[in-house]
Design brief:
This protein is an alpha+beta fold. The protein has three helices and four strands, in the order βαβαβαβ. A four-stranded mixed β-sheet has the order 1-4-2-3. α2 links the parallel β2 and β3.
């Protein structure tokens, strides 16, 4: 999996922080440059324990990690990347970078999307 630096999200929401849009553009360019690339978009959250997912304050559903991955999927699809080259899934809090988040920076790092390359 590739951790996309600076592809982080607003706490409790499935919308990226403003600084993340440059990273989304870079990912889009890679998908355009390598038309055979197939990926899995993996969403993650902070601030929960035991692998649980969190409530998305925008939808009211307990699937925040899925909604974050889906945001990236929809962004790429909306910019011309074929849906058959992508899939998405959420991992809740089961794969934190920082198990015990001691500060906002660690929470932000856990609120992320990673990309798994399925095939080139």
């Amino acid at each position: 999996s590739l951790v996309l630096k600076n592809l982080n999200f607003i706490g409790g929401r499935h919308f990226p922080i403003n600084a993340s849009f440059k990273t989304l553009e870079e990912l889009l360019q890679v998908m355009r440059d390598v038309p055979t690339l197939k990926i899995e978009i993996q969403g993650h959250i902070c601030c929960e324990v035991g692998g649980r997912d969190a409530v998305d304050t925008d939808t009211g559903t307990r699937d925040l990690s899925i909604q974050r991955a889906r945001f990236v999927y929809d962004y790429l699809k909306g910019n011309g990347v074929s849906a058959d080259r992508m899939q998405y899934r959420g991992f809740g809090s089961s794969k934190k970078l920082f198990e015990e988040e001691l500060n906002e920076a660690q929470q932000l790092a856990n609120r992320r999307v990673e990309i798994k390359i399925l095939s080139k």
